[in-house]
Amino acid sequence: MATKTGSSLSALDTGLRHLPSRNKQVLTAQPVKHESNPIGRGGRTLSHHDGLDFEVVKAVLFDIDGTLCNSDPLHFKVFQEALQKEGFNNGLPIDETFFRRNISGRHNPDILAELFPEWTAEKANQFAEDKEAAFRCLAGSTLCRMPGLTEFLGWLEETNRRKVAVTNAPRSNAQCMLDALDLSARFEQIIIGAECACPKPAPDPYIVGLNALAVQPSEAIAIEDSPSGIRAAVAAGIPTVGILSGQEAATLRTAGARWLIRDFKDLMDVIYKKAPEEQGTPVEMR
């Protein structure tokens, strides 16, 4: 059935970006005060001179989608096809800009309440279930670990640092991705946003993660790829690394990321204290 057939995508996009979040009132924790550090002042990558000191880090809280693996292209494909089938935007496919601004990293009920406010809860739930099932069909044989992740996880384990995964994905999706990446046994707990009082961008999932690890925010870092996830981690008081797997650098800085990396190889460079000239090809600001 065609819905939203009278809306233009650009108009809807503009409107959605100004709608208040239903979870905004939860964000009462004071964010960490800092200056956002771009990936490479002058175009260089993050280095050990930029204030990321692993000597004080006792635990790492990882997002899953777009962080452990580059899953956004699959989510984009599935959402694009599902929305087009519903007649969204007069049946024209959404583009990647719309996906990044309005969908990536967000909780399904919040997304669908804004895209289809006239839908019943039953209709929205069925759409979400069908979409997630389509994602799992693709993810099981497609996903691979982010560059440097294997080495970074190994270093954390060798140095007895703790780790959990914190995600807005449904538990079935989270488990599917971890199985596909052969990472199911590598995390102490999997924190699911929908199983907390509020999902990201509220801080609740990260607060649950900190409590599970019995660490203070200053003793941990979070690694996130989406504005929603970064806002959640920062609201929980956790210094946050933004990974540039899909979003623009400026978007992640605005959300509150203290550091930006291309992938986990950049973190290994920091751990082994490589100077910028010893690192890989410099990344230009996007």
Can you describe this structure?
Residues 23-45 are annotated as: Disordered. Helix content is 40%, strand content 9%. Helix 5 runs parallel beside helix 7 (171-180) and helix 9 packs parallel to helix 10. It folds into two domains: 49-70 and 143-272, HAD superfamily/HAD-like (Rossmann fold, 3-Layer(aba) Sandwich); 72-142, DNA polymerase, domain 1 (Orthogonal Bundle). Strands 3-2-1-4-5-6 form a six-stranded parallel sheet, sandwiched between helices. The chain is of the alpha/beta class and 286 residues long. It has helices spanning 9-17, 72-85, 96-102, 108-115, 121-142, 149-158, 171-180, 204-213, 227-235, 249-255, 264-271, and strands spanning 59-62, 162-167, 190-192, 220-224, 240-243, 259-261.
CATH architecture of the largest domain: 3-Layer(aba) Sandwich
Largest sheet, described in full? 6 strands, parallel
Q: What is the β-strand count?
A: 6
Instruction: Return the CATH topology of the largest domain.
Output: Rossmann fold
Mean pLDDT over the full residue set: 83
Q: Report the portion of residues in β strands.
A: 5-15%
Order of the strands making up the biggest sheet: 3-2-1-4-5-6
Give helix and strand order, one letter per element, not per position. Answer: HEHHHHHEHEHEHEHEH
The helix count comes to: 11
Shape: globular
How many discrete domains? 2
Instruction: State the name of the first-level CATH class of the largest domain.
Output: Alpha Beta
Query: What is the CATH superfamily of the largest domain?
Result: HAD superfamily/HAD-like
Category by helix and strand content: alpha/beta
Unreliable parts: 1-44, 279-286
Keywords: Carbohydrate metabolism, Magnesium, Metal-binding
GO molecular function, one term: metal ion binding
Organism: Tetraselmis sp. GSL018
Region (Disordered): 23-45
